[in-house]
Amino acid sequence: MAEQAQFEELARQLSAVGAVKRDLARILPHECPAGSAAVLTLLGHYGSMRMSKLAELLAVDMSVTSRHVAHVAERGWIERAPDPADKRSRIVHLTPAGEATLRDLSRRSTELLTERLSDWSDEEVDQLIRLMTRLRDSFGDCRSAHPRLTATATATVASAARAPTTPVLEPTTRTPA
Question: Lower CB density within 10 Å: C or N end of the chain?
Fold first, then answer.
């Protein structure tokens, strides 16, 4: 098991990942903010779904999801239709224009990552992907409270958060858990 100092450094490094996320957000077209990009990405990955499922995957309140969906629907990137199984629910799906926008977003992020990681070997990129996938798997569904988070772990995270790091000043639309 890793030492406490290693976990503290890991917490600092994960905080600094905000800079990477901000750079990725900067390349988004003006008409496609991060929330809209997330909606398109999830629909591209999972296909058509109920608004409630989309809210769950976004890990945001239904009202926030509705605003994101309205934004992308106004641009013709998605369509909303009544759910045949429950007329009170709506199913959302990508339109051809939404698929084209999603391809553009993918191209933009791929170009930025290619530029920024140009001095990384294929093996290093593969290793990063494996380790980040493993990290996400270790946390499972981060939207729910984690039963193993003890007072000691909370204190460790709080201690690491007080350490000097690159500030993460990202606006968020997530609702408190």
Answer: N
Q: What is this structure's pTM?
A: 0.71
Burial class (CB in 10 A: 0-12, 13-18, 19+), 64: middle
Radius of gyration for the chain, computed over Cα atoms and rounded to the nearest angstrom: 19
At residue 154, the pLDDT reads 40
Mean pLDDT of 17-24: 91
75 phi, psi to nearest 5 deg: -90, 0
Task: Determine the Cα–Cα distance for residues 118 and 23; give it in Å rounded to an integer.
Answer: 16
Question: What are the strands of the beta sheet with 49-50, ordered from one edge?
Answer: 49-50, 86-94, 78-83
Residue 87, helix vs strand vs coil: strand
Give the number of other CB atoms < 10 A from CB of residue 40. 24
> Are 99 and 44 in contact, with CB atoms under 8 Å apart?
yes
User: What is the model's pLDDT at position 141?
Assistant: 62
Question: Rounded CA gap, 123 and 148, in Å?
Answer: 33
